[in-house]
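call fold(seq) -> tokens
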Amino acid sequence: MKKRVYQLIKKLPYKKRNLNGLAKILNMSSGSDFQELTKVLNELEKERKIYRNQKGYYFDVQNKNFEIGELDLKYQGYGFLLLEGKPDIYIPQGKTYSAMNGDICLVEITKRKSKQKIEGKIVKVLERKMTTIIGEYYQGQVFPKGYSDDMIFEVIHEDRKKINDHQIIKAKIVDYTKKQVKKVSLDEILGYADDDGIEVLEVSHKYGLIQEFTQAQLDQAKAIPQEIHGEEVLGRKDLRQEMIFTIDSETTKDIDDAISISKNDQGNYILGVHIADVSHYVKENSELDKAAYERGTSVYLADSVIPMLPRALSNGICSLNPDVDRLAMSCEMEITSKGEVINYDLFPSVIHSQYKMTYTNINKMLDGDQDVIKEFEDIYKNVLLMQELQRILADVREKMGSINFETIEPKFIFDKHGQITDMIVKDRGIGEKMIEEFMLVANQVVATHVYNMQLPFIYRVHELPNEEKIDQVLTMVKELGIDVDLEDNITQHNLQKLLESVEDTKYEKVINTLLLRSMSKARYAKESLGHYGLAFDFYTHFTSPIRRYPDLIVHRYLRRYVFNNNQKVTQKMIDKFDDIAKQSSKTERQAMEAEREIMDIKKAEYMEQFVGDTFTGVISSILKFGMFVELPNTVEGLVHISTFDEEMTYDEKNMKLVGESSNKSYNIGKEVEVKLVKVNKVLGKIDFELT
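ret:
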């Protein structure tokens, strides 16, 4: 019946595609007939195969005139429908229906100007991203951070007497129908706007981050012994006598990975990447598994962390702490001096980490610090071997076309009261690069192994970049006078060449950022679509199961396919991989957005002490309302167009601001001197003026 109704909707003329028209063609006349037909139509709508317009007519949405995606709504009122592997669709102002930012929407395409330039209108909101809001309450309204002034959230009258002005509340949206006014009801009072730490609580709720574990989840974690018992070692390769150690930052408590290295008689490197065997403890469909699935990832907010798993696991029995036995999944590889993996083995193991090394001490050893070398003399030769192998693997990646984006990350120094005392730029030394290379090669080996078995799996994929955005970056590069000979066909090697040409120049950070923005977003998928940025054919995430759910799934299915030799595949399994990939991509995006927002708030908090001071920075982006200037410490602030001493024209094509009287131009990458005039800690926003 469902199939027949769907086929009719696809073929019938518009005027016959309503309930009465379909019933007539299907010879349905009784009340029970209409009930059955209505049920079928509702099911087809839920499956997103059809949609019913306001006049009651049905449309087939699985054709080229409709697309389903996430709305990226700009505060000016227009937006873009974001699609995986396809160009974004532009949604003009007034064509956004009642949709809000992040909603999953059905869009009807209205214009196709080119393959890259497509326009449409929202005809239905299929899934609301925002069902609740977090904001400051004042006189009957809630004011969420970052919302445009014309969006009003009114608290229903019966809830207003429960709230005091300037409290931060969580409210549920109960009416979306009015475009500019949304009715909300009180869900929870989080505290007052000036409470210590309120911003972390506010951002956590805003992005739907789950802070507390249920009692059942905590009880299950507590029931797991914190020591390994003899029977757990059975069937595992015993590596407890091997020289294995971890390398992390000083503050890391959830240690996922450990390394071993040696050379064999043929002069080849034997690299062991040993990853915490979280899947041994977190069983499928258990309470802990549900917690990990819902959270998707651990989230790091300033000086706090919201872990994916309870601390009894993440910091305890799963963490590869030094001087204790731990269960692991090992990937042992034989790698030639040319960087070729000629043999490998994947197996469950038991290890005993000898040291918890830090990047700081590893980098000191490699810089020749004799005191540190003496302190860790029994692993010094291993560290030198690791440095050799890192250089070989990095060279191989470069030849493949792997693009190395040098991103600069800030680090806050907090006192015991949680107040920021300093802000520095993180050093990324050889120690960090070694671990990165070893994790990359292990991830490749695991992905390739399972792909060759032709079994369903979870992959980390990165599709081709947006050509239009890349062209825009290249136009800008020429405007900056950067002399780099790029061919018309933009390959990874060409982008590599561009990044090398700006290395150690004032343009390095800006060009890196612009190219990153032009790239597709990496995501999880059940299909192996390759990784464009890394130039890998097969790639997955195997190395962080304590803090990423896809890695835990990779471990679970390695155990099933490889160790237990259970290669039976069902449709239910395949569907589950698709669901996990989408959920993991979604929670990853939420975590990144939350981390970015907290970072902006903390940057503003730190910079408040420097209001009135002058800084030298680089223009990082140009918009019609002004330009953003980035300081060397990664702080970014807005020079609003109203603060210029002359009228400015926005040149959108070349991304410039040009003075109407002086003809002086400001473009991305230009160095300017600015004065810090205003800081908004609540919004994490900073305002500069040109000096």
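DSSP finds 18 helices and 33 strands in the chain.
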